[in-house]
Amino acid sequence: MLTFSAVLLTGGGSRRMGVDKATLQLAGEALWARQLRTLQGISPEEIFVSARTKPAWCPAEIHFVPDESPSRGPLDGLVATLKKVRTTHLVVLAVDLPLMTAAHLQELKAQAQSGCGVVPVRGEFFEPLSALYPATALALALESLASQDVSLQTLIKKLLAAKLLRRHEITDEEQMFYRNANSPAEFSALAQAPANL
Questions:
Q1: Terminus of the chain with fewer CB atoms < 10 Å: N or C?
Q2: What architecture is domain 4-191?
């Protein structure tokens, strides 16, 4: 029987954006609230928020998982959360992917298998911040965190080789779900996209 936890990754420095991405408003809703609502839509057994320090906006009922100091990027948040999960799989969603839908995450969940998660891919570029990881990915993730290469792209390749992940080829219709924003101009363009409400 597969069980699922979920984590909202919010640990980025937002240097190009100039403000905390999580607090940006899209359709009158802060990104952090929008993304938590999306994760709640897939009915996980528990939801975590991962960040360097606990955000002021983090709801009391949500489990906060801090990065270890000094943070080495999103791999740190993934490892810290995998250490906490009590389920077979972890659904990861970045705060700056606001066009992602619960329905699409459900489709990814349906492709998960015992001991094997799902990573969306375009060509040879993986989308590790909107993927499903088996709890058993922790060992390889810890190895990567202890190495000089903390790239999630590298970790994904290792997990695929170990058959702990399977690929989901992103279709043309699904491209919009994976649009993110790293600058004010990119966010303005993203805000013009059709709402996923």
A1: N
A2: Alpha-Beta Complex (3.90)
